[in-house]
Design brief:
The protein is an alpha/beta fold and about 700 residues long. The chain folds into four domains: about 70 residues, Roll (Ubiquitin-like (UB roll)); about 140 residues, Alpha-Beta Plaits; about 220 residues, Rossmann fold (3-Layer(aba) Sandwich); about 130 residues, Dimethylsulfoxide Reductase, domain 2 (3-Layer(aba) Sandwich). It contains 25 helices and 26 strands. The strands form seven sheets. Strands 14-13-24-23-22-15-16 form a seven-stranded mixed β-sheet. The protein has a five-stranded mixed β-sheet with strand order 2-1-5-3-4, with helices on both faces. Strands 19-18-17-20-21 form a five-stranded parallel β-sheet.
Length: about 700
């Protein structure tokens, strides 16, 4: 389809608005109420344009682009009307700096006075320089406001976790209200009062916390001013760099943009692109900085001297660790490694256990057990559950069954797809737990103990149905039975099963272990964690959250971690590990999306990547093996040995490579006699960093649930 905008002929696909067509061609039309995730509203009227053949000016955000259309965006009438509309908007917004002829001269002062709590001008505003309203004022060319100014003088709300609300800066564009309801399915925010007293608030003027807010930050990102702003932004300098990484707090693989300065992460924002498309959750947005630079970070190596841990040079700590590990018999050595580890680090751990420790007692976190249990279900009972699926497919389902899930908090990206499906007319069924909010309130509640046949009768038989379940369904003693019940329900209704992993790389590590011939989780008698409590090992390399060993713990403990934990405090040697954003690597999401990222910031102190730590240990033990390779070489070896990664090229652009379906003639070994492992803690524990314990704001939010 062809149309002409400002004398330039452009080509666009059908179904776009004039605003979308113009921006796709690199032409700028200012707007304040338009947002890519929201339906057109035509509320602010800043985007008015002149369309040939039409008597009135048209809002470009809500006017479809048509074949042969002639559009003018910068006629004198259009520009004059935009300025007048913008004046009216700014009448109740501090605008002195926006139209000040000397605003450029304040640039050197911004960093010193931006922490002021009350904003009366741009120079005091925490988003100065990154403000959408500033850009619109500059684009429109507004240099004076003739409408009398009205300052509301409302108190800034600071009673909620993570971010502040300043109604004095709100321009009532409605983007925060709409994105909370239409995209996130929460409907916490709304317009309250009437006329000149209208503002964005909550029912009965309750706090956001008491109104059911999950603090995903979508409203903050949608706000074109600083009416909603992250509290920490006021106390930090402005970022000068940015890097994209994979969020480590769950298995959905959201892209995060880390904003950095002088080698330090200042803030995290949901990045554009698949799978999250600019959306995130409270953990990925507000807790990343604490995980990297918060208190409790291990920055130096330590060894135990005279009953106390003392800092020592890294090489000295490695020597001590190598001697202690070598002193134990191979059958008395064990290794626990994190399910959030990159594939390169996981491969190094597995090879280090085989070559340097000469032990098969190597285990990852139990919360990653769902993928192993799916394999065991096929091996033991002949039931094949596809462990693959695209999150975007949930949005096209006719019915969705949430099986014992707290979707909004534990799987927020999957929840967004559920909201999209419900908005499109799908029915939501909930077994075990009912999601909070208006979308969850409309769910049909099912009893998970009613049996698969009864549940199958309640589900619709027409159209695609998706059953969502997570690691909790597979990790318990009845894990296989629960999965078989779900398989039965799917067989009765034609539904598709969609497993949701909780760990950042649980699925990738499973594919790696399977390719290396390792047995599924807990299949060789009891698990490593269970045997630790029985005193089965003399030496342990601990790099993952673990329960208290009690009196049966190892005689020699090497802790490789990012943060101090109760186990690290008891260790004989503590080796500081680089966090996810400091080491880089390759991660595989729940849906099988594979991505490789480099380091965003340097590791603090003497901290190093897990693979570098293992390489140093192996050399000191006289058995370097594959663990001595760098990350690039390790990934090349992984790609060669893991069939599901065949064809993956980390240098190719985009995020559209998914694990390949691999069927083997040799099924995994049975898991019938395995004893379940002790609980290793909550899934959102990131190695040694516990966000619930580290963040008072996050703990407050979780308690409110």
């Amino acid at each position: 389809m062809k149309l002409t905008i400002d004398g330039r002929q452009i080509v666009c696909r059908e179904g776009l608005t004039i605003l979308e067509a113009a921006r796709g061609a690199g032409l700028s039309i200012p707007s304040l109420c338009d947002h890519r995730d929201l339906a057109p509203l035509a509320g602010c009227r800043i985007c008015l344009v002149e369309v040939e053949g039409r008597r009135d000016l048209a809002p470009s955000c809500a006017t479809p682009a048509e074949e042969g259309q002639v559009v003018r965006t910068r006629t004198p009438e259009v520009l004059a009307l935009r300025r007048k509309v913008l004046e009216l908007i700014l009448a109740s917004h501090p605008y002195a700096c926006l139209v000040c002829a000397e605003k450029a001269a304040c640039e050197d002062l911004k960093s010193t006075i931006r922490k002021v709590g009350e904003v009366t001008g741009c120079v005091l505003c925490p988003v100065n320089g990154d403000c959408e309203l500033q850009r619109v004022v500059e684009e429109v060319g507004l240099d004076r406001v003739d409408v009398p100014a009205v300052y509301r003088g409302r108190e800034v709300r600071r009673d909620d976790p993570f971010f502040d609300r300043d109604d004095n800066l709100c321009i009532l564009c409605g983007r925060c209200v709409r994105i909370c309801e239409e995209v996130r399915g929460a409907a916490v925010l709304s317009f309250v009062h009437r006329g000149g007293r209208t503002l964005v608030g909550t029912p009965f003027d309750r706090s956001l916390l008491d109104s059911g807010c999950r603090f995903c930050g979508a409203c903050v990102d949608a706000c074109p001013t600083a009416a909603l702003v992250e509290r920490a932004v006021r106390a930090l300098p402005r970022p000068t760099g940015a890097a994209t990484v994979v969020c480590p707090f769950c298995g959905q693989g959201c892209r995060l943009e880390l904003r950095t300065r002088d080698g330090e992460v200042l803030a995290a924002r949901p990045a554009d692109g698949p799978p999250n498309g600019g959306q995130g959750c409270v953990k990925g947005r507000f807790l990343v900085r604490g995980a990297l630079a918060g208190p409790g970070r291990i920055r130096e190596a330590h060894v135990r001297e005279n009953g106390r841990l003392a800092p020592v040079p890294f090489d000295e700590a490695v020597d001590r660790a190598a001697r202690g590990l070598s002193a134990a018999a191979p059958e008395k050595r064990a290794l626990l490694y994190p399910s959030q580890a990159a594939l390169e680090d996981a491969f190094a751990y597995l090879e280090f256990g085989r070559s340097a420790l000469s032990t098969e007692a190597v285990e990852t976190s139990p919360v990653a057990a769902i993928w192993q249990r799916l394999d065991a279900l096929e091996a033991e009972r002949g039931l094949r559950i596809p462990a693959a699926g695209r999150l975007s497919s949930i949005g096209g389902a006719k019915a969705v069954l949430s099986w014992r899930l707290n979707l909004p908090d534990d799987h927020p990206l999957a929840w967004l797809e559920v909201v999209r499906a419900v908005r499109a007319g799908a029915r939501l069924f909930a077994a075990g737990r009912v999601p909070a909010g208006p979308v969850g309130a409309a769910a049909v509640v099912l009893d998970p103990e009613a049996g698969p046949d009864r549940i199958a009768r309640d589900l619709p038989a027409d159209g695609p149905t998706i059953i969502l379940f997570d690691a909790a369904a597979a990790a318990g003693p009845r894990g296989l039975d629960a999965l078989e019940d779900l398989w039965t329900i799917a067989g009765r209704t034609g539904a598709r099963l969609f497993p949701l992993g909780r760990t950042a790389n649980g699925r990738g590590i499973h594919e790696l272990e399977r390719a290396l011939g390792r047995p599924p989780y807990g299949t060789e008698g009891s698990s490593v964690r269970a045997r630790l409590a029985e005193g089965a090992f003399d030496a342990l390399v601990l790099a993952a959250p673990a329960p208290d060993f009690g009196r049966g713990g190892p005689r020699f403990l090497v802790c490789v971690d990012t943060h101090w934990t109760a186990q690290a405090e008891k260790a004989d040697v503590v080796l500081p590990a680089a966090a996810f954003a400091e080491a880089g690597g390759t991660w595989v999401s729940t849906e099988g999306r594979v991505r490789t990222y480099g380091p965003a910031v340097p590791a603090p102190g003497s901290a190093r990547s897990d693979r570098d730590i293992l390489a140093a240990l192996a050399v000191r033990m006289g058995r370097p093996g594959p663990a001595a390779r760098d990350g690039e070489a390790l990934l090349a070896e992984i790609r060669r040995r893991v069939p599901a990664l065949a064809g993956y090229d980390p240098a190719s652009p985009g995020d559209e490579f998914f694990l390949r379906e691999v069927r083997t003639d040799k099924p995994p070994r049975a898991a019938a006699g395995a004893r379940p492992a002790p609980d290793a803690g909550r899934a959102d524990v990131l190695r040694g960093y516990d966000p619930l314990a580290a963040s008072r704001s996050y703990a407050k939010m979780r308690r409110a649930r």
